[in-house]
Amino acid sequence: MNARPTITCRQLIDFIADYLAGELDELSLSDFERHLDRCRSCQAYLDSYRKTLRLARSAADDLPASDVPEELVRVILSRI
Amino acid sequence: MTPSNDTRSMQMTMPEDREFVARLQLGDSNTFETLVRTHTPALLRTARRFLRSEEDARDAVQDAFLSLFKSIGKFEANSQLSTWLHRILINCCLMKLRTQRRHPEEDIERLLPRFQEDGHQVEPSIAWADSAETMLQRAELRDIVRSSIGQLPDRYRLVLLLRDIEELSTEETAKLLHVTPNAVKVRLHRARQALRTLLDPYV
Predict the structure, then answer these.
(1) Which phi and psi angles does A2 have, rounded to 5°?
(2) Which pTM was predicted?
(3) CA A69 → CA A35, A72, A73, B44, B108, distances in Å?
(4) Which of B92, B118, B127, B180 has its CA at 20 to 30 Å from residue B12's CA atom?
(5) Do the Cβ atoms of A76 and B146 come within 8 Å?
(6) For residue range B76-116, what is the model confidence (pLDDT) as tens digits?
(7) Does B72 touch chain A (CB under 8 A)?
(8) CB distance from B1 to chain A under 8 Å?
């Protein structure tokens, strides 16, 4: 049986965004998953990449909501 | 994917009916005041993500309302007023950044993973033990995430904000930044990797 050579860690990391977006073609996806199954470092990298996205979305979203800044509202209304 | 809190809160609180838009188009000052009071807090929050100074963020919000006021006649009532205003604000923020960007940007390479000749990472990645939800319970980590996003060079920071926070499509982001969709994809992946590197010591 002629097994395809596995992709490298560099190639896997290059493919992560496309992998998460579901944009890898079937062959690349199979190579990606085959490497991932065997590589603890890439498993850790993918997991931390996913967590980075989650942290970025949540932290950016929870900036304290400000009250209506009266001074700014007055300036805007005076210019309209 | 869900829209950001700002978009959600505007959609829930904004009178979006045709009558409200019609009153705006007739130049009714009370209706404009309602519009400004309803939208300003959420718009200001968005502007603060893009712009580094409070003064610039407030200027951008003003510019967005003035721009909307000038073009309200062209608004088609079948689209969402809050979404339109939000897009105008993002444009105002980007215009402000374009006029400010005078210094050469820091290279992002130092924040990207490094590889040996055989393609293995120079320093193998170590797992982040906690779940994202557990990490988010740490207030200081949320601050670190925000300040780390702020440390990214603008060409990467803006793509991250537009794609991952504002949840615009690759094509919309490309159009706003005057770059190709492929450049957006490359920058987004680099921005996420750089942010991961900046967060790594704190998790």
Answers:
(1) -95, 100
(2) 0.87
(3) 53, 5, 6, 9, 36
(4) B92
(5) no
(6) 766 788 889 999 999 999 999 998 866 667 789 999 999 99
(7) no
(8) no
